[in-house]
Amino acid sequence: MARAPKDITVLHGHHVITGSELRDAFVADEGLENPVRMRRRILHGAVLVLLVGLIAAAIVVALAIMNGQIKIPTAERSNSASSVCPAAAYDYTPPEKINVNVFNSTSRPGLARTVADAFAARKFVVGAVANTTSSYRGVALVVSGAAGQSAAFSVQRNLPGSDYFQDGRTDPSVDVILTGDYKELAKPELVDQTPGKLSCPREDRRIVDDSKWPVIPTALPSGQPAGS
User: Fold this and answer.
1) DSSP characters for the chain?
2) Does residue 34 contact residue 27 with C-beta atoms inside 8 Å?
């Protein structure tokens, strides 16, 4: 009796996978994985493009700041916005109605007396003349209380470049504190006597001038000789 041909795809009752079937299975698996891989590649590409864009934008902004095209607000703006300089306008007060004290904070001997005599020659009523100390850098300080602002305005017109400060005194007297950049008073015939405002140039120098408020001299003790 003839034997039936042996089925080579069956071994001990189990189906043997052929090469063609195995290739078909891998092709099917790869077909399922391709969309997942594609989405990952798209996501990674989008993230990379975003990072490159952010870096480029940061470089552009930094260059714009360095070139001054973009300005960042600083503390200097807020300081200048809150002015401490009186805004009122004043008439020129006749010198004979002004009591002025003169103080020398420089190393130049005799400066307070020289300037005091020049004020006296202009009919100012000169009081104390002495030496003092001040960390202020500039021409001179003109100091008064609220009652002496009009008088301080007239003093400043004779002392161009000076800087006004207000203290707590109640009388209308004015202190002049001569500092390192002082050279001379304005010539009498060139003194501007038109109405105007007090001058506070120190406000414009706050970014480079970190000195504290000036040392305000007090009245000389009785019996103490005036300085030079």
Assistant:
1) -PPPPP-TTEETTEEPPPHHHHHHHHHHHHHHHHHHHHHHHHHHHHHHHHHHHHHHHHHHHHHHHHTTSS----HHHHHHHS--S---EEPPPPGGG-EEEEEE-SS-TTHHHHHHHHHHHTT-EEEEEEE------SSEEEEE-GGGHHHHHHHHHHSTT-EEEE-S--S--EEEEE-TT---PPPGGG---S-EE---GGGGGTTT----SPP-PPPPPTTPPP--
2) no
pLDDT (tens digit per residue) in 42-80 = 888 888 888 888 898 888 888 777 776 676 654 343 333
Cα–Cα dist 131/128, whole Å:
10
Q: What mean pLDDT comes out for the span 211-219?
A: 45
How many other C-beta atoms can be found within 10 angstroms of the C-beta atom of residue 165? 21
